[in-house]
Amino acid sequence: MKELVLGKTGIKTPQNAFGALPIQRVSKDEAVKILHKALDGGMTYYDTARAYTDSEEKLGLAFADRRDKVTIATKTGGKTGKEVREHLDTSLRMLKTDHIDLYQLHMVGQCYKPGDGTGVYEALEEAKREGKILHIGVTAHLIEVAFECVRSGLYETMQYPFSYLSIQKEFDLVKEVLDNNMGFIAMKSLAGGLITDSRAAMAFVNEHEGVLPIWGIQKESELDEWLSYMHNTPEMDDEIRATIEKDRKELSGDFCRGCGYCMATCPMELQISTCARMGLMLRRAPSQTWLSEYWQEEMKKTENCIECGVCTTKCPYGLETPRLLRENREDYYRVLAGEVKVQ
Fold first, then answer.
1. How far apart are CA 43 and CA 105, in angstroms?
2. Closest Cα to residue 104, out of 6, 205, 180?
3. What is the three-class DSSP state of 14?
4. Separation CA 284–CA 191 (nearest Å)
């Protein structure tokens, strides 16, 4: 497994990192067990966020007495200096630490800068002076905002969706980030579950020097798969190239990536990021969970879509989201009726 340096931060880590969003769904004891096993297996970089319910607390329980062994990155969704400071104080308390290695602005809708009137960047600078955070980063889903953040010179890292299903502009973003000596952190390298071959995902990322993937891990079996690559990292070969080409043909262009950027603006409070790609999930990540009463009800709610189009304006990929909701709902109903078989 390659080791990389996250740009100007100087943070060193294997090219194989732990995404701690999913551990909010397991018990504290199970989470601590998984996190300890991850560190013992060689993973040193852990990504969480204030928005991930008790994820930070679970990292704190696992690593309070092993703090010097791990790099912790967390995030704030604060939109004012006051909110950023409050979030940071809570994160420090939950993580049981006196500093955050990498503190990131979460899913930004703008490039926060000194003097913009929000006080956000000033709060980050103050926290850095105080030693509460060591490095300042940003995460984004909107490509133009991401480019603006990179070109501002204000941030040390950029976290953005990146997988072998990415479009050319996203490859361009990676290049510009690395050319500017920033660290690039790849989220959604499994495209929100649509990429089902972890070997192919790892081999692809492994070809991109300086790109750090954070794999969302919830189960010990998932962790075992990623840890197996620490000593036997998949390399690109004809079989993996064929898998990638097949997936690119099937999933190119018009499909929901599941970023969720549109959901906060939905007046009907629909779970767009799952419902707009439910047909693909049933085929590519088959699970009886998708057919549960809960998801049947959520899919039925999409009948209430008023097609206001706000979700389309918020989509980083310019997708016709109301149409995708309709098509996936019809597909889902056909599966429920037994007209279409899935695994």
1. 23
2. 6
3. strand
4. 11
Task: With CA atoms as reference, report the closest residue to 127 among 161, 158, 163, 102.
Answer: 102
Q: What is the pTM of this model?
A: 0.87
CA angle 199, 202, 204 (to 5 degrees): 105
Measured in whole angstroms, how far is the alpha carbon of residue 291 from the centre of its chain? 25
- How far apart (Å, rounded) are the C-alpha atoms in residues 102 and 16? 17
By 3-state DSSP, what share of the chain in percent is helix, strand and coil, each rounded to 5?
50, 15, 40
Residue with tokens 């070969």: 237
CA 146 – CA 257 distance, rounded (Å): 17
244-301 pLDDT, tens digit per residue, is 999 998 886 678 888 777 877 899 999 998 999 998 888 877 778 889 999 999 999 9
Joined tokens for residue 300: 């039925």
- Domains of the chain by range and CATH? 3-245 (3.20.20.100), 263-336 (no CATH)
Among candidate residues 330, 216, 325, the one with its CA nearest the CA of residue 277: 325
The Cα 181–Cα 272 span in angstroms is 35
Contact 158, 173 (CB under 8 A): yes
Q: How many residues does the structure list for the chain? A: 343
Residues 6+ apart with CB under 8 A from 249: none
